[in-house]
Fold each of these.
Amino acid sequence: MKIAVVGATGMVGSVMLKVLEERNFPLTELIPVASEKSVGKKIKFGDKEFEVVGLETAVAMKPEIALFSAGGDTSLAWAPKFAEAGTTVIDNSSAWRMNPKHKLVIPEINADLLTADDKIIANPNCSTIQLLMALKPLHDAYNIKRVVVSTYQSITGTGVKAVKQLENEYAGESGDMAYPYPIHRNALPHCDVFQDNGYTKEEMKLTNETKKILGDDSVNVTATAIRIPVVGGHSESVNIEFSKEFEEGDVRKRLSDFPGITVQDNPAVNTYPMPIYAEGKDDVFVGRIRRDHSQPNTLNMWIVADNLRKGAATNAIQIAEYLIENKLV
């Protein structure tokens, strides 16, 4: 089982390597892939070193699976070339997510849609993954009508340049800016680029990807995405209106029973999800579960997850594990 990690020297790529190792992923050969400037570098994996190769070399090596985290342009140009060589691509960019020919997969929710013919599989947006993990068991029970979500997103979602900007600001030094304003002691209501409708691309991902993953266009989502000076993960304040009545105890049980969800919800002892505790973990953490008394059948929740793990690397590797377990590669 040859596995290529495209973008192996990047922030998500390095987490992919870490997660592959932690989960004892059944690979026989690792192919780290990066841009030409990184070709020839050595990457340590387990007790071995592997040399970084370029994209053309990696295609010729015909890995069974390629985990892509190298940006949308690279995915659009190279994922089809890997697929033509017989490789199954799991892509972490937004390039293929809303393409009707390709599946958008969170394993706990819709991995059963996958077949051996799916050669390019899309990994959802990080904010969408943690949101949908909490919504799915509740939608199945009470039928969601509308979701209002405000995100508080880690700078790691932007990448290494953003982390460096924050470090420079902590130190009082100048340097390259990932954002149009300082992020230290600030909150930017600006994740990704603004669209003609006044929403950012990130906000529209939450709207559109939710419908596709749930397979239900009747679920309405409106979002505001905010970047905050946090490293550990993304947080979301979520207001959910259902078609049916619910009991809070039943909500907690359904969330607790759903694989990959940890409920942390005991305000009496200050127990609630926070990115400082989610960092480095694969679960999605849910708390502040309470009825919205301003209208019927409506619930408030707070959802936190490490955006580099379940929001990106871990979800992609879980897809790969599903493919192997079900002999789809």
Note: The domain at 127-307 is CATH 3.30.360.10 (Dihydrodipicolinate Reductase; domain 2).
Amino acid sequence: MLVTLIVLDSVGVGELPDAAAFGDAGAHTINHTLRHTPAGLPHLSGLGLGRIPTVELGAPAAEVQGGYGRMREVSPGKDTSTGHWEFMGVQLEHPFQIFPGGFPPEVMDRFDAATGRGHLCNKPYSGTDVIRDYGEEHLKTGWPIVYTSGDSVFQIAAHEDVVPLEQLYEWCAAARELLQGKYAVARVIARPFRGAFPFERANEHRRDFSLVPPETVLDAVKATGQAVVGIGKIPDIYAHRGFTEEIHTDDNADGIRKTLERMRRAQAEQTSGLIFTNLVDFDAKFGHRRDAEGYSNALSEFDAALPELMAAVPQDGLLIIVSDHGNDPSWRGTDHTREHGLLLAYRPGMTATDLGERETFADIGATVAQALGAEWKGPGESFWTRLK
């Protein structure tokens, strides 16, 4: 049995009931993206995208061969770690800490001691703006650019010609050790950049250093002796816990290609287990940059690849497509938006199946566990039997 789980990072499908508390009432990533730059998305539509409540497609498919629904996030947050951890059965009672005023001196003094240098910025900032505004000073001083956002992140930007990648990663590891307990953040992120002003982010060399999660469905599947393959930034999000194999990707196209390769190899070798992929470009390249046209084009590119992905699903296999939060490119600011998660599912021979509104993202992990015969007693209600 092979389950492939693909996260379309930030492709939210409309505000959650508590969106107003996050300043996101009215946000709808997919609708607002497609209003700005229409795209047919025939293959996503064929899995039921147009039948998900509130989703507006120009011409939804008349015939659907898949499961469709949307998911509530019960954890208090709208960031990558919160959403992904809940997918695999970790529901947070309290949000990860954010630092809207920057990090306090007791953190930054210790970070400076670890690097042997000073630092620049230490404010919430857009990733493209921060290297434009501080990049030249960084070239002169060699000091790392430290910034945060509306997410629980400590981000370190450095030019690849000034700070070698391995050194940047060492600084991130040092920051990860510092940012525990009282000052814990979900992720420390290496943000290398290159070139001349206004500079270019080297996203393929990004690396996330996450808090270690408690036990998840990934651990339960791994304990059965089956494969747990993380593709893209997935292993980083779970602090590399629960995986048997990790595969780096450069962008969405590379992530799709490597997912297909791994699915085909698993089928050829009759490998059972989970392939878990994150396609981050929707979020990193287009959502945060409020680029609706780029976002729509990325959706079209995934839609075009979907038939190949579906064809690679074994006869007894399962493909699930989800999203972890929103990032409405029409929205104010540059942060994520608090939205329902997308849910589409496919098995060969399926007919249209309304999976409804799931009460928690953890239903994904419960479904994966049941499909793969792993013991999971944590939160989530499986919809596996609805897919047979």
Note: The two ends are 13 Å apart (CA to CA).
Amino acid sequence: MQTKKFNIKNILSNYALYFIMILMVIVIGSMSPKFFSWRVLRDILMQSSTRIIVALGCLFILISGSADLSGGRTVGLTAVIAGSLAQKADYYIKFWNLPELPPIVPIFAAVLVGLIVGLLNGFTVSKLKVPAFLATLGWMMVVYGTNLLLCNKPPNNSQPLGGFLKNFTNLGSGNIAGIPIIVFFALGMCIIVHVLLTKTTLGREIFSVGSNAEAARVSGINVFKIQMITFALAGACYGLAGALEAARTGSANSSYGNGYEMDAIASCIVGGCSMTGGVGSVIGVFLGVIIFNVINYGLTFIGLSSYWQWVVKGLIIIIAVSIDMRKYSSNK
């Protein structure tokens, strides 16, 4: 029986980024030991929860071999829609003339709007054959413009939304046995997406299309249908994240979700997803988001300017993509 040789070069290639970021966390912790506390961990988990859900949506897109730049602005639009439907009846700036609604209504509306945006992206990419980068960039602008118009309408006039019902904000800021409820949403979504990708025919077809779309088509897989489904699932994830972000912060405006799509892509790549498609896992994405948020929170915690977060994230993305492309070239 042939045993696999221990190859330090492969280990460094596969896990170098993790080693670097773990080292950064250790340095941050040594500079401020209070960083390793339950309160800090709880804050990081709460801040990471919506980003995990956004990254899970991005995971569908990357595995299928495509790209999506509309995620962040979709989060912003759905946060405003969910927030506008979750206001108290006696709030002095009432967005819609509606009675108080149960929390399932704003969440459902946000998911539905996200789903529609995803379907528009999918149709533009798979049917109109517009490159995914340009198609999703175009819809990102449409979504952002729509959100600005919506927020600017009377009586809101571009003011941040507020006055949300308690049973809605509890979903984002409440806790069960000391664990934030929003964390349960994120973990639940992780389980659902993991099962869908690894235990269903749809999941296998998404991986097949991402690995080789032409071969998948020849083998009888409806590539158009798979691309539409992946974009729709991604949009639904963005919608849920938008609703929960509004619930977590107790507010919403047109700037919500700005840059979330880049953080999601970066987290997926750090978590082992390939920009060439056909590779990715839920656990990798989960770890990628957590690591990014630990570093972001940690840099702020030790008093370093938040501007450095952009420098660090940019370097991490460059390193992660270069490692991924080296793997792709060697495999090819």
Note: Confidence is low (pLDDT under 50) at residues 1-5.
